[in-house]
Write a structure and sequence with these properties.
The structure holds 2 protein chains of 2 kinds. By secondary structure, chain A is mainly alpha-helical. Chain A is built from 14 helices and no strands. Chain A has a single domain, classed as ABC transporter involved in vitamin B12 uptake, BtuC (Orthogonal Bundle), CATH 1.10.3470.10. In chain B, helix 7 crosses helix 12. Classes of the chains: A mainly alpha, B alpha/beta.
């Protein structure tokens, strides 16, 4: 088997195990034997006994949609993270580098300061506002960083960092001024928001499909960009246009992912690095591998978030950094492939 | 012959069947909750999960304690709720833990998010969102609402009457007063140069006024507001109430804070610990809070 097939095999295996864990573990303990009975029972169509029905309901209506939402979110964040790192040729880049998170946070907190009616659209106000806030921020930063026709990466990063600070300060200001509940905003900003059901999954799916689809096809472009803008241009790449496309795709996926789950840090930074350390820096492979393992990594983090202090839930953003950082440091120390960047 | 018999027999059975349940069944309960949702219960709820400490206190006060099967983590009153399973709290609620308790009513409160209500509703649970009251009258109305949901209207009418007469007893002593001591109520002074205190619109502010005090933070702009130490020094309250005494703040630790030693209340030793739950949880114990505050502010009137 080639190295390449092996890398896909390992990451897919990891993802599959993470999905099983995420469905099997929760606040309510479901014995593995019952889990098996529910699975076989629902496949063969036999009716389940009363306690099993509750378990089946919990699995199908609560754990399954949440698992899929977290899987998609992790995939979007890690895939975008890999693309951003390649695009900016910067190991510190994550999907929030040029303001998606701070823009989304500002939009969400602004929407929370209004008492929306309890209707479908009222409940959509926060995710919609965060999605719009994130995309507006990226467009604004891109416009601000522009010098003539070129958009130098350094300008993008600096404009992004400056605007993020501005938006974060506004967010904090609105949170302090609000008379209502702060914990809703705080839990959103820490990645602890979760809405049940298939609604969120179906809403973000199209954006993720478009965004991640473009990123999956951009591996070659990202490889060329590693030679520097001038070199890539000389090799026949329309640098400005391609970069804008990748930027839009990654931002679209990230904005959709955070709109329902809140701001989950660290996955988008670390997963691409681990993949790079283990499987090399070829972006044609790095992007898909990051997407697969990012989904798995966030699922594992979510299992911990749900079970560590059960039945209380921890915000996901706390778990990703608390568990992810030591793991990454361990990987970094063991890396044979020194100076990998 | 046979056919001729069947029809009357069938009719008779149907009539009897129709009569049976009609005599024992109670009317369906239909109410509009704080999110303008219509909530329907076929009969008073028998398995209630409470998602807010104030809701738990209301349920027990009106005599529905035996029907409570789950609570949020902050619910700690009355003490016997400690044995009930918890379903989450401050950082997040666990929907599957709630589903597993098979509640026929989930009683959400003003501290819960509409997203949580929507999630539970999607799972087929009956959720009633009890809004935070702004006045004591609205708090009584909340008690009556929960009473209807759980089938305790008679006890609750008695309870509300006694709460009202206790409030009236306080009013009778306080209203004739001309002088009202100035009060500073502390919620959190992690940063002693700008401690958190109750501003207008909060029950803390409302009850201090009703108990015959003048809250030095009445003119701030939000319910929970930071008061600058400079303003506190200028206001120079007669009485300091430590709502944060549960977190270890004492009169002695307050005296150690730089810049606080000049306050009259500190010089005269007018610093009192207080159970903040009596003013922060919008339930029947607000009346306990009112009485306790009135006693603190006017010890001569309440022996």
């Amino acid at each position: 088997m080639t190295n390449r097939t092996l890398s896909y095999l390992w990451t897919l295996l990891f993802l599959a195990m993470a999905v099983i864990l995420s469905i099997a573990i929760g606040a309510v303990f479901i014995p593995p034997a019952d889990l098996w009975r529910i699975l076989t029972g629902s496949l063969s169509g036999t009716t389940l006994s009363e306690p099993l029905k509750t378990f089946a309901f919990i699995i199908v209506s609560i754990r399954l949609p949440r698992t899929v939402l977290i899987l998609l979110t992790g995939a979007a964040l890690s895939g975008s993270g890999a693309a951003y790192q390649g695009l900016f040729r910067n190991p510190l880049a994550d999907p929030y580098l040029i303001g998606v998170a701070s823009g989304a946070g500002l939009g969400a907190v602004l929407a929370m300061s209004v008492q929306w009616p309890y209707t479908f659209w009222g409940l959509m106000a926060v995710p919609a506002a965060s999605f719009v806030g994130a995309l507006l921020t990226v467009f604004l930063v891109y416009a601000l960083a522009r010098v003539g026709k070129a958009v130098p990466t350094t300008n993008l990063i600096l404009a992004g960092v400056a605007f993020s600070s501005f938006a974060t300060a506004l967010t904090s200001f609105f949170m302090l001024r609000s008379t209502g509940e702060l914990r809703r905003a705080i839990s959103w900003l820490l990645g602890g928001a979760s809405q049940a059901g298939w609604g969120p999954v179906l809403t973000i799916l199209p954006y993720l499909a478009i965004g991640l689809g473009i990123l999956l096809l951009s591996g070659h472009t990202l490889n060329l960009l590693q030679f520097g803008d001038d070199q890539a241009q000389q090799m026949g790449l329309d640098v400005t246009r391609r970069r804008a496309l990748i930027l839009i795709a990654a931002s679209l996926a990230t904005a959709a992912a955070v709109s329902f789950s809140g701001i989950i840090g660290f996955v988008g930074l670390i997963v691409p690095h681990v993949m790079r350390l283990w499987f090399g820096a070829d972006y044609r492979r790095l992007v898909p591998l990051s997407i697969i393992s990012g989904a798995g990594a966030l699922l594992v983090a979510d299992v911990i978030a749900r079970s560590a202090l059960s039945p209380q839930e921890l915000p996901l953003g706390i778990v990703t950094a608390l568990v992810g950082a030591p793991f990454f440091l361990w990987v970094l120390r063991r890396a044979k492939n020194q100076g990998f960047w | 012959m046979f056919r001729k018999l069947v029809f009357p027999l069938l009719t008779l059975t149907l009539i009897l069947a129709g009569c049976g349940p009609a005599t024992t069944s109670t009317p369906t309960i239909i109410l509009t909750d704080g999110l303008n949702r219509t909530v329907t219960l076929p009969r008073p709820a028998q398995r209630v999960v409470s998602l807010a400490p104030s809701n738990t206190e209301i349920l027990y006060a009106i005599g529905a304690g035996a029907q409570v099967v789950g609570r949020d983590e902050s619910s700690d009153y009355p003490a016997r709720v400690a044995s009930l399973p918890t379903v989450g709290g401050y950082s997040g609620f666990n929907t599957e833990a709630i589903v597993a308790l098979h509640p026929d009513l989930v009683l959400a409160g003003g501290i819960n998010t509409p997203e949580l209500v929507a999630s539970l509703e999607k799972l087929g649970l009956t959720v009633y969102y009890l809004p935070n009251p702004a006045t004591l009258e609205e708090m009584y109305a909340n008690l009556e609402t929960v009473a209807r949901l759980t089938g305790h209207t008679t006890e609750t009418a008695t309870l509300v009457d006694s709460l009202k007469s206790r409030v009236a007893a306080v009013d009778a002593k306080i209203l004739p007063l001309n002088s009202r001591p100035t009060v500073y109520y502390e919620i959190d002074a992690t940063d002693p140069t700008k401690p958190y205190t109750y501003g207008p619109g909060s029950f803390g502010d409302l009850l201090i006024q009703r108990a015959g005090g003048a809250n030095v933070s009445s003119n701030l702009s939000s319910q929970f507001a930071q008061l600058s130490l400079e303003q506190l020094v200028v206001a120079n309250p007669t009485i300091i109430i430590l709502g944060d005494s549960a977190y270890g703040t004492t009169a002695d630790s307050l005296k150690q804070r730089p810049g606080w030693e000049g306050l009259d209340a500190v010089k005269n030793g007018q610093i009192f610990p207080f159970d903040d739950n009596l003013v922060s949880r919008p339930g029947p114990r607000l009346v306990d809070g009112l009485e306790a505050l009135a006693k603190l502010l006017h010890p001569g009137l309440f022996k």
